[in-house]
Amino acid sequence: MELSPVQRSLELAEPFVTTKLDKVLGWGRKYSIFNYPFVTACCGMEYMSAACSRYDMDRFGAGLPRFSPRQSDVLLVVGTITHKMAPVLKQVYDQMCEPKWVVAFGACTISGGPYNNYAVLQGIDQIIPVDIYIPGCPPHAEVVMDGLIKLQAKIQHQKHEV
Amino acid sequence: MSEQSGGTPPITAHSTEMTLNMGPSHPTTHGIVRLKVRTQGEEITDCDIEIGYLHRGFEKMCENHPWNQCVVYVDRLNYVSPIINDVGYHMAVEKLLGLEVPVRGQWLRMLTSELMRICDHQTCIAASCMELGAFTAFLYLIKGRDLIWEVLEKICGARVTTSYTRIGGLAYEPYPGMKEEILELFTDLRDINREIDLLMSDNRIFIDRTRGVGALDRATCLSYGFTGPVARAAGIEFDVRVQHPYLLYNQVDFDIPVCSSGDCYDRYLVRLHEMEQSLRIVEQSLAKLPTDGPVSAPDARYTAPPKEQVYTRIEGLMNHFKHHMWDHMLAPPPGAVYHAVEGGNGELGFYLVSTGGEQPWKVRCRPPCFGITQALKEMIIGRSIADVVPIFGSINMIGGELDR
Amino acid sequence: MSGTRTERTFQATGSWAGPELVERICERFESAVLGQSEAFGEREVTVRREIWPTLARWLKEDEGFEYLLDLTAVDYLGLRPVRFEVVAHFYSLSGNRRLRVCVPLQEERAELPTLTGLWKAADWYEREIWDLYGIRFAGHPDLRRLLLYDEFKGHPLRKDYKMKARQPLIGPGTMGGAASQSREDEADV
Fold first, then answer.
1. Which member of C165, C172, C180 has the closest CB to residue A126?
2. Of B106, B188, C100, C189, which one's alpha carbon is 20 to 30 angstroms from that of C69?
3. pLDDT of B318-349, one tens digit each?
4. Given an 8 Å threshold on Cβ–Cβ distance, is C164 in contact with A116?
5. Where are the beta strands (DSSP E) in chain A?
6. pLDDT reading at C6 higher than 50
7. What is the pLDDT of residue C63?
């Protein structure tokens, strides 16, 4: 198992850590996710469960929902996005500051889910870029945790502008 | 209301009129609805409610699917209490078919419906309390809901969108030990209800924010077609379970909480007490639930065979295909029916039109929160911005059912 | 817990309206009643459009149907000579009975007088029917689309509107842009 910089420094009992600034930023960012729950539909019920005490997203440093796009860095798109809602989602995404990530939560946001009709957007990636897709209709709270961990891995390993 | 006073309003620091946009994605609106509010200082003088942000074409989808597959879409109407939707839709289809569900299936439908009603009220109270700043109440109630969901997951394999009922009965037999597990839940659920009662019912802040807020008189409530807890909070004694008993509701003993003033606090009280009444119904249903017997009508024309038969017997396999191949599927006789059940929000009616085909010609859902959301405008005009939060929380708007 | 009254004061006698109500309707509106039926135990009356608001007012004020529970429409394209039918469900709380009233409407004259003056609930129901079926309600104070958006063309619950007929995305940057694409082959649309 690869040790984190902090663990390694403790192991070696040395007063300093050598790493790349990039990695430190990624490490910091992945454990301080401020999410914006863009809750529209059924998936919101599972989001509630995932965020509350029984599953507790806070264990992964994503416990604080911010309802302002300016203060958040992960956009959780939870539930069906219709054609009427699409411009709102786009605007919320545009208002978020970089660096930002998008999670497509549930089948509807991934592909329209069971709704292949005139009213529903067939996947939010037609209007905004998506980082993590969490499948399920709606996804189980444990699947949400898995998606969150995958997002953290992605944040850790991507390049961070300094 | 200042806009109707005619004379010049007194000049104060906040006398300018302002248009404020709340939603569709707003922290205090736990559904997607857009309120275009015109304010004079803190007071709301006019308001336009825009809905439809979750219009997913429910009816169009149902019209293009076989009768048996509509359950998927029906589930997602009121996603807080999906089994009640399933029961309503399937009872309407069974009415068309003239099909009788076995007693055991009926008790199970009733039992799970009531568990769903508890979930619905828990979610409504939780969300409205959270929006008023009572985060503890939210955590307690969602914990209670998760406990129910865990049992539900064992019953039908899903937590939220259950698809539990089928035409003629239920999708699954209850699992062994279900009765004991549900009874075990009761201690926890009653504890949570008591905790909420202690936390909120006499809470000064909560009472100040909800007492006398959002009340409408009886005539207006009737005019908007209020049903369910919101109507009962206003003193309208209407509950489909009592007035038009379906399933076996006339064989159990339960009370209907009714208040008189119709404000947000009364709506909260009605919901809180209804949870206890639902628990009573579940208790009695468990006691009266027959230990054996089918859960679905044993009629191969209407109900799909169990999977064991599909995989081991040619008759079962053929029967299975008869239920899943075009031109062989279930086709109810032509006609139109309306069947109503008591949903979490009130009368949840299904109006089905069949032309004798394998797809419904029309599946109309009467959404109980439709009229209530429409009345939101009247409830908030003349009040302050802060009052929008408890009022919106108390009407329990559910996007899937409102916009369909 | 205190504050609420929980004893049952109301009774379970609910049913659909009996034949005597239909007799009274026939007596009063004679030739305007096109038909009546009692299928599946549900009372249904079909009437001409001309008497729609009068009948509704009479039901509300003289017969005690306080509730307009539901108002919707059905498109019988290719099935019936008269294409549309507006269907209303009335409910009387005091008498505890229900009634369904249907009004057939020709496609060329898909218009009914509004009920907004009688029931406030009619406002949104009528807007929804206009939105999804394109049936107008004369005298409605604010007949706009309710569930869909202004840029939407057509009325999706009409039977000649294809389920997957997508419309262009709306909003900044998408004006006149491509329609939302389905991931499956849409040759059949």
1. C180
2. B106
3. 888 888 888 888 888 898 999 999 988 889 99
4. yes
5. 34-39, 64-65, 74-78, 101-105, 132-134
6. no
7. 85
Average pLDDT of the segment spanning B106-124: 91
- Residue C4 confidence (pLDDT) above 50: no
B82 has pLDDT over 50: yes
Residue C11 CA to residue B380 CA, distance in Å, equals: 34
Note the pLDDT tens digit of each residue in B198-256. Answer: 988 888 989 998 988 888 888 899 999 899 899 999 888 888 888 888 888 888 888 88
pLDDT tens figures, B249-297 = 888 888 888 888 888 999 999 999 999 999 999 999 999 888 888 888 8
- C-alpha A148, offset from chain centre: 6
* Neighbors of chain C with 3 or more C-beta pairs under 8 Å: A, B
pLDDT at B114: 92
Q: Please check whether residue B120 lies inside any domain of the structure.
A: yes
pTM for the model: 0.88
Structure tokens, B345: 């929000």
CB contact (8 A) between residue C146 and residue B96: no
**DSSP label at C168?**
B
Domains of chain A: 36-156 (3.40.50.12280)
CB burial of residue B253 (10 Å; 0-12, 13-18, 19+) = exposed
In this structure, is residue C87 part of a structural domain? yes
Cβ contact, residue pair C68, B225, below 8 Å: yes
**Among C14, C98, C124, beta carbon nearest to B370:** C124
Q: Is the Cβ of B29 closer than 8 Å to some Cβ of chain A?
A: no
How buried is C29 (Cβ within 10 angstroms: 0-12 exposed, 13-18 middle, 19+ buried)? middle
Number of compact structural domains in chain B: 1
The number of distinct structural domains making up chain C is: 1
Q: Search chain C and give the residue with CA nearest A114.
A: C182
Q: Residue A48: its chain B contacts at CB < 8 A?
A: 123, 126, 142
Identify whether the C-beta of residue C57 lies closer than 8 Å to the C-beta of residue C118. yes
Residue C73: what pLDDT?
A: 92
C93, closest residue in chain B (CA to CA): B238
Q: Which of C124, C140, C180 to mutate to test the interface with B (most CBs of B within 10 A)?
A: C124
For testing the chain A interface, which of C147, C166, C170, C185 should be mutated: the one with the most A CBs within 10 Å? C166
Residues B70-109, buried b or exposed e (16+ Cβ, 10 A)?
bbbbbbbbbbbbbbbbbbbbbbbbbbbbebebbbbbbbbb
Task: Tell me the pLDDT band of C72, cut-offs 50, 70 and 90.
Answer: very high
Given this model, what pLDDT does residue A14 score? Answer: 63
CATH number at residue C97: 3.30.460.80
CA distance B380 to B44: 7
Q: Do C169 and A83 touch (CB under 8 A)?
A: yes
Residues in chain B: 404
Q: ipTM of the predicted structure?
A: 0.86
Contact B72 A114 (CB under 8 A): yes
Amino acid code (one letter) for B103:
V
Expressed as residue numbers, the domain containing B389 is 58-403
Residues of chain A with Cβ-Cβ distance to B139 below 8 Å are 52-53
Residue C149 Cα to chain centre, angstroms:
20
In a domain, C78, yes or no: yes
B vs C, Cβ pairs < 8 A, gives 136
Task: Give the tokens for residue C121.
Answer: 């609930």
Q: What is the pLDDT of residue B90?
A: 92
Specify whether the CB–CB gap between B81 and B266 falls below 8 A: no
Residue C144: pLDDT over 70: yes
Q: Any chain A CB within 8 A of the CB of B257?
A: no
